[in-house]
Amino acid sequence: MAVPVAHRDAACARPPPGPRYRLPMKPTLKSAWREWIKPFAVFLLVMAPLRSAVVDWNWVPSGSMKPTIMVGDLVFVDKLAYDLKVPFTTRRICNWAEPSRGDIAVLFSPRDGTRLVKRVVGLPGDAIEMRGDVLFVNRIRQGYSIQDPRPFLRDMPEARNPVVAVEHLGGRDHLIAVIPDRPALRTFGPCLVPRDGYFVMGDSRDNSNDSRFFGPVARQDIVGRATMVIASFDTTRWLLPRLGRFLHPLGPKDA
Fold first, then answer.
1. Residue 221: other Cβ atoms inside 10 A
2. CA geometry: angle at 64 spanning 164 and 62, to 5°?
3. Neighbours of 21 (CB within 10 A)
C-alpha cells in the first residue's frame, strides 16, 4: 500500500539536533604559548637583565663570612651600589661610588671566576698585613673587642673553641671569628694593594679563601654590595628557618 506523501515526508524527517556533549579540547601549542610559554618568556626577559645589572640575591654555601653571614643565608645584593653595568658583562656604563673599607662586596674570584662574598679591608694604595690574626692597615693596628662566643656556637659546628670579636676597621665595626685549633695563614704581608684593586677577606679569618691566597681583586670584578639577609635556613637541621635572621640588615655596624 502506498504511503501518502505527507506521511512519507514526516516519517523520513530527522528530529532537530539536540545539544551535543563535547569532550574538553586538549591544549594546543597555540594556547600553551599564549597562556604559559609567552608570559614565562617575558618574565625571563625582564628578570635576567634586572638580576644582572640592578639587584640580585645569593644563597651562601660556605662559612667564610661567619659569624656575620651564615651558611644557608639568602643575601640581597645591591648591584647599583657603585655603578651601572651592561647586563651580563662587567663593563661599566657609569660610575658613582667606589667600595669602602668594611663593605661586604660580591665579586668574582681572580683565580677561577667563582662568585664570592667577602669583606673589603684594603683600598687602592693600602699596605695590608696580618700578625697572628691581627690586621694592620698602613702599619696601623686595628682594634678588637672580644665577645662571648656562646651565642654563635650553634651555627659554627666546625669550630670547637672559636674566638669571636668585634673588629674596629676604620670606623666600621663588624664581627670576626678566629679558630685557633685549625691550621691557617695567620701572618702575611705586608701586601701593597694596586691602584685599581681591593684587598678582601672573610670574617671567619681562619676559614676563608680570600686575597691572602688569590691577591687583590680588580675593581671591575666587584659586582655589588650585600646589604641584607633576606631569609636564612639552617642547613644542618633540615633547613629549619632562622627567623631571627630574616630581613637582617648588613649595614655599617654588622655587629
1. 18
2. 130
3. 4
DSSP notation for 15-38? PPP-----PPPPPPHHHHIIIIIH
Give the containing element (helix H, strand E) for 167: strand 163-169
What is the enclosing helix (H) or strand (E) of 46? Answer: helix 38-53
Coil, strand or helix: which one is 84?
A: strand
Question: Exposed, middle or buried, 235 (CB in 10 Å: 0-12/13-18/19+)?
Answer: middle
| Spatial separation of the C-alpha atoms in residues 55 and 61, rounded to whole Å | 19
Residue with the three cell numbers 600553551:
32
Q: Give how far Cα 124 sits from Cα of 49, 195, 205, Å.
A: 30, 5, 21
Q: Find the Cα–Cα–Cα–Cα dihedral 127, 101, 157, 185, rounded to 10°.
A: -10
**Rounded Cα–Cα distance for residues 168 and 134 (Å):** 11
Would you state the pLDDT for residue 50? 47
Please list the active-site residues.
64, 118
| Residue 179: strand, helix, or coil | coil
Could you tell me the three cell numbers for 11? 516519517
What is residue 151's three-state secondary structure? helix
Q: Cα separation of 173 and 144, whole Å?
A: 9
Phi and psi at 245, nearest 5°, equal -100, -5
All structural domains of the chain:
55-249 (2.10.109.10)
Q: Using a pLDDT cut of 70, give the percent of the chain over it.
A: 76
**pLDDT category, 190, cuts 50, 70, 90?**
very high
pTM to 2 decimal places: 0.79
Rounded distance, CA 191 to CA 153, Å?
A: 33
